[in-house]
Amino acid sequence: MLYRWLTHLYRAGLISTLCGSLVAVQAAYAEQSGDSDNQEVLVAELAEDESVEDVEHSEPLQSPEPGSDEPDAIDAPGKDAPEESVSSEQPEKKEEATSLKLLGAEVAPGKSTRLSWSPAIQIAGLSQPTPVLVINGAKPGPNLCLTGAVHGDELNGIEIIRRTMYDLEPDKLSGRVIGVPIVNLPGFQRGSRYLPDRRDLNRHFPGSTDGSLADRIAHSLFESVIRHCDMLVDIHTGSLKRTNLPQLRADMNNSDVARLTRGFDRMAVVHSTGSAGMLRHAAVEAGIPSVTMEAGESLRIQEHQIRAGVNSLTSLLDKEGMISRMFVWGDPEPVYYDSEWVRAEQGGILFSEIKLGDKVSEGEILGYVSDPITNEQHPIRARSGGRIIGMAVDQVVMAGFATYHVGTEAEVPGE
Length: 415
Ligand SMILES: [Zn+2]
Description:
Largest sheet: 5 strands, mixed, barrel
CATH topology of the largest domain: Aminopeptidase
Order of helices and strands: HHHEEEEEHEHHEEHEHEHEEEEEEEE
Structural class: alpha+beta
Strand content: 25-35%
Bound molecules: zinc ion
Distance between the termini: 59 Å
Number of strands: 18
Radius of gyration: 21 Å
Low-confidence stretches: 1-51, 64-89
């Protein structure tokens, strides 16, 4: 029964996978909310919430002094220079498009197809391959990789990848686009951020062959897919009732990464080196310029956020010379931010006074934490002026909960 359902799911493809499992996602979520043990675990796990930890304070940039003969930020002290990057400006000048060999298949130029990746950690007879969408352009160019749902409950990225990829025409594309819309398929089916062993996959890259389940899955994805990428966009959402303005997290001290961010129209870009174990961090260490794209909140499909993500990826494809867009509108530049999370000082119920994307000034009240028993109202104020690039939705919070992510416009390094 289960097996038949799974087979059907796989055959029916991504769209119905998404629709079918949304029900499962909701059901699983409802189940979790009722379970007090689970609740405790969730609260404990807030401590290692990527959305917060990744950019709790964006670190100062190490831009070289003007006139110093330090050639490039990538040589900054403390960074092991990765062995000669596979992928800086133009990966290798390919005269003609060639077949792409990936996951045991060979995809001819001008073709798109669906491959499958199996991390080989399941019971062989029940193993459920993870779909990988591949478009090999008729013309030569770089390999762009898109990954979604590394956290299984983050749905916006799945739809961003579907729309972006199904809009591309293989005979007009220069280069290849490789998309893994649902990296954490077991998590996706349970409506969970985590793997079945309750580990956060985005803490285990590049992984290893003899470690935990998460290490093995990470290693398999990294070796069989990610190493084929010349650039990577890993798409996430805010976690656990936090929402993010569409934005990139990028290590702006790395000149190849900084260059990559310039392709994203109208995106907010927050500087963050990321921490060890994150997919983008591991990929950058391996010489693959990578960014995390954050859009909206988990367990939801948000049209506005999805559109912003698709537009931005389309502009990247254009700026990388992979497609040519007919129309460009608006202010086609990314905006760079330094940022800081403001935390609740008291526990209670959070009520926000501002909305995502609002501009705020120093000292402005962003929201209140209301004590439901004593009726005390504790205001939360902005410590600096800027824009709300991420925030918690109204909910019960405890002291220390990261509530508002305030971004201050920053200089673009190297400009
Ligand atoms: Zn995530």
